[in-house]
Structure formats: structure tokens, C-alpha cells
């Protein structure tokens, strides 16, 4: 089954987590709050986890899976360095010394040539995207991410955040606080814990894996793209099985439920998403799919509902086993 895109819309129920924080004021950790509008047009302030955090979690799973599968990683991504291939100056020098680079420079096609080398050098840069400035002669070379996460945002009526007091216990001289920048003494501190139902939306453009954004040609062969797609989808699945993030050492999230729909597209129709902030989001997605399929009298869009993390792993597992690289 050749997949063009895949989208997930779901509602994850988590208790007592602190996956995303703004920073600290004194000895008080501040959780991240955002302003949203509900389906009735009312304004709310709710706890939320940024898409950056969830994409970082997914990228870490991709990195681990890529190593296991023996997929290529650049020098930066091999160390899970946030600078990715921009850190790999040795590869940049190799690219600039190659005769193919000289030919591309002569023809004014350095950027497309460099992007091709980036795609072949690293699955993480291919799937997660990168912005290169001054790398191998490219002034500004952008690779858009194949996977897109929205904010994971709490439903106003069912999400709450409280701050709890904790103490760092020091047996010697318990009565004295640290009073120093080194934070060596006994201290009290306040840390937030949030519980609620959080809306999740994400999109994966599987057709873009291995495709050069400038020439629009696939610069990675079909066998390699198939492995990359399998690894990418596994990393998306593992993101919800194990959402790594801030303060997991003492506030590992209690994940109670994850329910929603997986939408897949086998042609250029976009896999639809509707935010679970809307109460009937699943019916909306099914209606969109039915109407878009009706334009072609075909079942290009499929909507697969799931209730629970177990069913979700089964649904996405079946998609992973059936997925083939997109081809025109």
C-alpha cells in the first residue's frame, strides 16, 4: 500500500505530568499555559505541551530506531546533536572537494546538489528537516520536516494544573538553607503537576521521504525509502508509548487512555485532521473522508478509529507492515 500521507487526531489522558515548563521564578517551577478558543467561541487559558517537545521525543525514537536498522546518520545526528548535519563539517568539506560539486557549481545548482547529499547522508535530516546556512557553499538551504506536530493542548473542562511543595533533604545541618548559588543546603521548592485530557494532532507527509525539495525527484532509492518510512512510523508510535520529556525522573506521566483516529491517504488527497478540542471531531473526520472520496468515486482516504493505547498500537502497527514508498 503506497501511502501519500498519514494523520493522527486523538485525545490522550495523562495524570500528574510536568512534560513542559516555562522556567523557574525563585524556587517555583512555572508550567506552560496557552490561550485557546473552544468550539463555542469562548476563550480559555489551559495547560499545554508544545509541539517542539513532542517532536523532540519523536526524533529521539527515530534516532534509536535508525541505529537499530542500520540506516545512515550524519556526524551530528550520530551523536543526537541538535545541530544535526550542520555540525558535520567534515562531510561538508568532502562534498565541496567532489568533482560533482564543481559541475553543480558551474551550472548554478549547488543547493539542489547539496540537498541530495544531505538526504543520502542522514535519515534524521531527511525526515525531521534542517536549515543550513553556509554549509558547503549554500547560503540558506532548508529541508522541511516530513512530520508535523501541533501543540498537545488540554481540554478546558477536563484539565487542571496544581503546584506542590517538595524538599531537598540534607541530613547535616537540616535547619540551614543553602543561601548560595551552588544550591548546596536543604531547600524547599514548588513544582507543577498537570492532569487532564489533551488534544493531539499530527501529520506525516510520507511521500516526501527521500524526495529532493528543489528538483522534486527522489534522490534515495525505493528500498532505502521503504526502510526509512517504516522507521519513521515506528518512531511516531513509540512517541505515545513512551513520551519522554521534562521531569520524568520523578513525574513519569500516568497515561490512562489514548483514543482517536488514524487517517491515511493513498493519493494526493490530504489525510484529514480535526482538533479533538471539538467534541465530535471523529465524526467530522469521517465526514471529510467520505466527501473527498466521493470526488473520485474511490476509497483513497481511510479512517481507522482506536480506543486505547493498545488499539492504537495495533492500528499503526498494521499500517507500518503494509506501507510502501510513494511513487508517481
Give a written overview of the molecule:
Helices cover 32% and strands 30% of the residues. By secondary structure, the protein is α+β, with helices and mostly antiparallel strands. Strands 1, 4, 5, 8, 9, 10, 11 and 12 form an eight-stranded antiparallel sheet that branches. The protein has a two-stranded antiparallel sheet with strand order 2-3. A hairpin with an 8-residue loop joins strand 6 and strand 7 (141-143). The two termini are 13 Å apart.
SSE topology sketch:
Blueprint: E1 5-17, E2 21-25, E3 28-31, E4 33-37, E5 43-49, H1 51-69, H2 89-97, H3 99-106, H4 110-121, H5 123-128, E6 130-132, E7 141-143, E8 147-149, E9 152-168, E10 187-204, H6 222-241, E11 254-265, H7 281-296, E12 301-307, H8 309-322
Antiparallel strand pairs: 1-10, 1-11, 2-3, 4-5, 5-9, 6-7, 8-10, 9-10, 11-12
* Percent of residues in helices: 25-40%
Question: Compute the gyration radius: what is it?
Answer: 23 Å
* Helix-strand makeup class: alpha+beta
**What is the count of helical runs?**
8
Topology as a string of helices (H) and strands (E): EEEEEHHHHHEEEEEHEHEH
* DSSP summary, beta strand count: 12
Please give the alpha-carbon distance between the first and last residues: 13 Å
The pLDDT mean sits at 93
Strand % is: 25-35%
Shape call: globular
Q: Main sheet, how many strands, which sense, barrel?
A: 8 strands, antiparallel
State the low-pLDDT regions, or none: none
